[in-house]
Amino acid sequence: MKKLQFSFELITQDKKARLGKITTPRGSIDTPAFMPVGTLGTVKSLFTDDLIKTGSQIILGNTYHLMIRPGIEVLNKFNGLHDYMNWQKPILTDSGGFQIMSLAKLNKIDINIGAVFSSHIDGKKFVLSPEKSIQIQKAINSDILMVLDECPSLTYNKDKLISAIEISTSWAKRCKIEFGNDKSKGLFGIIQGGLSKELRVESLEKLVEIGFDGYAMGGLAVGEAQEEMFTILNDTVSYMPKDKPRYLMGVGTPSDILGAIKSGIDMFDCVMPTRSGRTGLAFTWEGKVNLRNAKYINDKSPLDENESIRNLNLYSKSYLNHLIKTNEILASMLISLHNINFYQQFMLEIRKAIKKGKFDNFYDKYINMF
């Protein structure tokens, strides 16, 4: 029997908004898709069974962090992250490129070598090269791998953006060689160029020439205004190959996602649903709810009366307010699960709207709610 290969099907479009399906040996992913973030092999405070019940079809792990803990030797004993964390659906791994930016004080970049890090845990020196990043992602047994890139922090300095493109393109070529010809997995290139249409298109053209299974917009959601992000997406997404998945990395709020889908983006990831859950912020069909607010002390209503996962509809806003104020772990668990479930229901309704040719109606209803 022929082994199932990685593939993408564009099913239909509603103007620029796209409905599609990614196929992998571990399962399919309906797009537009939201990927909960499991940086260290766990979506914080959530059981994997509950993740599945929310409709999550793929999660994200992180090369840098998993390399440090638990380490590749451990993951190899479990044949990768899927068995290790009891998640048998697809996994996408970030290459470590974001940590080159977020941990800039702990690393130095050399285009010929990679990023030379001092571990944020114990200060131990190590090199994250393009080849090493792919090797680690293969040890994780990722279904979708990302090339190592330089993701600059927000800057309008053209020289810095040009340098990031040069480094990222060079590393992308090396990642493609190291990745080889495994048709069961996808390898995505990452477009840089900041808020410059000219540089974004230049970066994309160089990546298309190398050839990847999908293309991601990197270097956004790094401090720019939402309108700036929407502008660069509107200006450049149409240049991305139509027959490949389009991924906007590290985004975002429901309104961020709506605006990006309107530009033609297919895939998203963000820590926001679980990070917000840990701070008492819930996302609902009526907008954001700050459960720390005193107005919920006597509120008997649930966040969503139709939410049956873990009987979430039986927990009142008053009780959640109490759990938050008393620093109970259950608050993080309940609100994070609610938020992930809301995000997945939000994506499901978006897919329905695109299929019916009514995405603009959905967009107009919710774009200013979050």
Please tell me about this protein's structure.
The protein has helices spanning 48-53, 63-68, 72-77, 81-85, 97-102, 130-140, 158-179, 197-210, 226-236, 254-263, 272-278, 317-325, 329-356, 359-366, and strands spanning 7-14, 17-24, 27-31, 33-36, 59-62, 91-94, 107-110, 114-118, 125-128, 144-146, 186-191, 214-217, 246-248, 267-270, 281-284, 287-290. The chain is α/β, with parallel strands linked by helices. The chain folds into 2 domains: 7-270, TIM Barrel (Alpha-Beta Barrel), CATH 3.20.20.105; 276-363, no CATH class. Helix 10 links the parallel strand 13 (246-248) and strand 14. The radius of gyration is 20 Å and the shape is globular. 46% of the residues are buried. The model has no long low-confidence stretch (mean pLDDT 96).
Q: Which helices and strands, and how do they pair?
A:
Elements: E1 7-14, E2 17-24, E3 27-31, E4 33-36, H1 48-53, E5 59-62, H2 63-68, H3 72-77, H4 81-85, E6 91-94, H5 97-102, E7 107-110, E8 114-118, E9 125-128, H6 130-140, E10 144-146, H7 158-179, E11 186-191, H8 197-210, E12 214-217, H9 226-236, E13 246-248, H10 254-263, E14 267-270, H11 272-278, E15 281-284, E16 287-290, H12 317-325, H13 329-356, H14 359-366
Parallel strand pairs: 4-14, 5-6, 6-10, 10-11, 11-12, 12-13, 13-14
Antiparallel strand pairs: 1-2, 2-3, 7-8, 8-9, 15-16
